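Dear support,

Our group has been running a series of protein-ligand predictions, and this particular one with glutamic acid is the one our PI (initials K.S.) wants archived with full inputs and outputs. We had some confusion internally about which version of the output was final, so please treat the block below as the authoritative record. The input we submitted was:
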Amino acid sequence: MTSLVRFAPSPTGYLHIGNARPALFNWLFARRHGGRFLLRYDDTDIARSKPEYADAIAEDLAWLGIVPDLVIRQSERLSIYDAAAERLRAAGRLYPCYETADELDRRRKRQLARGLPPIYDRAALKLTEEQKAAFEAEGRKPHWRFLLEARDVTWDDLVRGASHVDCASLSDPVLVREDGSYLYTLPSVVDDIETGVTHVIRGEDHVTNTAVQAQIFEALGAALPVFGHHNLLTTASGEGLSKRLGHLSLRGLRDSGVEPLAVAALAVLVGTSDAVRPVASLDELAGLVELAHVSRAPAKFDEHELEALSARTLHQMPYERVAERLTEAGIPGGEPFWQAVRGNLTKLDEAKIWWQVVQGKVTPVIADRDFARRAAELLPAEPFDATTWKSWTQGVAAATGAKGKALFMPLRQALTGLDHGPELAALLPLIGRDKALKRLAGESA
Ligand code: GLU
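Confirmed final output from the archive:
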């Protein structure tokens, strides 16, 4: 059976690096196991869900390299949830409750004051038909709770191994609000059943949900998918990542020029025993991620580590993976150019500087005119190749007696106008003899 995984964000904000993790864990799992990936918008909260966030999520996933095989929206599937809720009502597993939020709050406080766990006391189960009718006559509308069985739910977690939650310690969850709208819990199960999701991989903040949802799967007569709960990401100082951390949003990272492959690699390898290393593709990354090796401790996200990994990712990036982006950025450099400069980049955008150096105008820096003139006289005839630099500088050294920095720095400053940069052996053939001669003569060329 082919596996089907899903990523189920609520479109109530932009994705950040923390919630890109379940997207990536699922996507990489599908890639590795030849499965399919479903993007499901959990948008039953009409007030907070926005179409522009849904579009932004798809765009941000595409930036990471994730293109879903199918996309569904919960807001378009309400009748399916209504049917499932009806089945649960008929089976006596979904019951109406009339307490207001205030009443529930007071009850919780009383329980806590008496040293009791603040679990819903199921008072609504004891309501007579007359009492319910009286509430309705008062204008109250019921919300609906799922009747949990007071037992241990167990599963073999892809990350955490043998897992269990004692449902006797949980309140019966509200599945349907007073206004008839659905909370996350039921639609998620119904969709997982209807779409045939085989593996539910999500953050460990959902472990308790899994126990509750396992009971709903069973109440609806469906087999359980396999579950996996990965650790959560925190900031370097250990705080949870919030949607408000704009610069850690995927769009913030994209705008800052960070490589998407580096974001993906750090997101799934951070805190694992595999050192975080640059990868050449998501497929390579898929081969490195072992859910069973994901740490149980929170993973700390370090922006400097991301920047460093992003640079290392560029340093080893093959030309064919970057060609299109270079063209889009107005750098029609070609492979020799890319090979020459990639090792010097921290951001792809910096390639522009080097494209300017090889093809645009440079204002040369000439400290010693005689030296530059001697060097120009010794510049070999074209064609230039990777050996030209070496033979030329050997000739210049022999003629002038300059060596080391005193030899190379004036040549670099004359040819590039800068005192740092990629290997000149690689740049010189790209600059060409004509420009090199002009620059050595102190002309802007
Ligand atoms: N919408 C839920 C969330 O974003 C989905 C959780 C799940 O994967 O089931 O937390």
